[in-house]
Amino acid sequence: MLLKRPILALILLFLVFESEARRGRTRSRTKSKVQIGLPITGKYRDPESDQYYNHNDGAKILQASHFDLEYALGHKIAFLCTAKGSPRPHITWFKDGVEIFAHHYLHIHEWLIGEDRVKSKIEIDPATQMDAGVYECTADNMYSIDRRSFKTDFSIAFD
């Protein structure tokens, strides 16, 4: 009986040290000294990235729809995006990360403004539950890319 207690004590001691060692290792793995995303200054860590995204002639979105939109089922919803750049940027629309193409209930309109601007609008009429999601307007030219996202969800309107 005396022999079993020291063995049990050693096993418990071993388990305590092992769990402490594991806890310490996992903590050090999750700590990161690298900042993810853009710094508050708007400057990129990499000079090439900074030069690309902040190029004077690069695509810049000047006007975009509100970030969060709640729409009524059966009504029309529309998103607007205006961009400038030299050469004139091209605007592409995405829903939940997939490029959107016009179809019977979704129309994409585009207006060229002057030499360096473009305005694009998508209209969905009538809007259904399937139209809820995250929409994205992407403006790009040979110098840079700019994008804005719009989150949508539906509400049921009672007349």
From TrEMBL:
It comes from the Eukaryota. Pfam families: I-set. Keywords: Disulfide bond, Glycoprotein, Immunoglobulin domain, Secreted, Signal. PROSITE patterns: IG_LIKE. The keyword Secreted applies. One of its GO terms (biological process) is homophilic cell adhesion via plasma membrane adhesion molecules. GO terms for cellular component: extracellular region; plasma membrane. Residues 1-21 form the signal peptide. It is found in: Secreted. CDD domains: Ig (cd00096). Its main location: secreted. Residues 47-155 form the Ig-like domain. Belongs to the hemolin family. This is Hemolin. It comes from Euphydryas editha (Edith's checkerspot). The lineage of its organism: Eukaryota, Metazoa, Ecdysozoa, Arthropoda, Hexapoda.
